[in-house]
Design brief:
This protein is 4% helix and 35% strand. Keywords: Cell wall, Peptidoglycan-anchor, Secreted, Signal.
């Protein structure tokens, strides 16, 4: 698994749409949508029925992070109307929480089947593969490397686990400059099939597609998988929960 600066070379290209933010009152806030129940298909932002993304939780809002308590976000990707497609990943993150030296790190792993134990300690039953770790030093506000994943097939979806965590140390727990910080993140997935006739998404290729919801982003793309680069966004907040321990 490696990264490349191109978006599914020769078959898809685009730019990330804007991010969403969430502002809440200071102090510990209950996790919105905290219960992990099942992957839910997210509304398509391009031509429907090609690359299908699902999310657990959905909407993905992590509003009660604290040192030592990570948040887990599962994103599934599958294809319809094609037998095989390449798949690649991009990341976006911005805000005070992701820029703080002890702030948010994003760890991305992939599994061939759905993850178990998202409420406590996620496990990949078939063995996980590490894709990348994005630390506060990585500036992904407007761009990131592109990470190539295993190809998708109609019978073999893939499941990403994004672990969201801040530094777990006595210094972080005592660091008042962390408290109340917020941030945003998004993942973008590009799928490009080679066994379909290339289709141009409605409205033309390239450019930014309209934002279709508080937790969805899209990249306009021209490719065989028609608007193949989709993304899901999330909002998160560092809480004061450690003060209650």
């Amino acid at each position: 698994m490696h990264h490349t600066s191109r978006l599914a070379r020769a078959v898809a290209a685009g730019v990330m749409a804007g991010a969403s933010s969430l502002t809440l009152a200071a102090g510990g806030v209950a996790l919105a949508g905290a219960a992990h129940a099942a992957l839910i298909d997210v509304p398509p932002t391009g031509q429907p029925g090609r690359l299908v993304l699902s999310s657990d939780p959905y909407p993905a809002e992590f509003l009660d992070l604290s040192p030592g308590d990570a948040g887990y976000w599962e994103v599934g990707a599958r294809i319809e109307g094609a037998t095989k497609a390449t798949l690649s990943l991009e990341l976006r993150k911005s805000g005070d929480l992701v820029e703080h030296p002890r702030g948010l790190s994003m760890t991305v792993d992939v599994c061939a089947v759905e993850w178990t134990g998202l409420d406590s300690m996620p496990v990949c039953p078939t063995g996980a593969e590490r894709i990348t770790v994005a630390t506060p030093e990585d500036d992904y506000a407007t761009s990131s490397p592109t990470f190539d994943l295993e190809p998708l097939t109609a019978a073999a979806p893939e499941y990403l686990l994004i672990t969201l965590a801040v530094e777990d140390s006595p210094e972080a727990r005592a660091d008042q400059t962390l408290m109340g910080l917020t941030g945003d993140m998004a993942v973008g997935l590009t799928a490009s099939a080679f066994d379909d006739v290339p289709v141009r998404p409605g409205g033309g290729g390239g450019g930014t597609l309209p934002n279709t919801g508080g937790n969805l982003w899209a990249l306009g793309a021209v490719g065989a998988l028609a608007a193949g680069l989709l993304g899901i966004g999330t909002a998160f907040r560092i809480s004061r929960k450690e003060e209650e321990r």
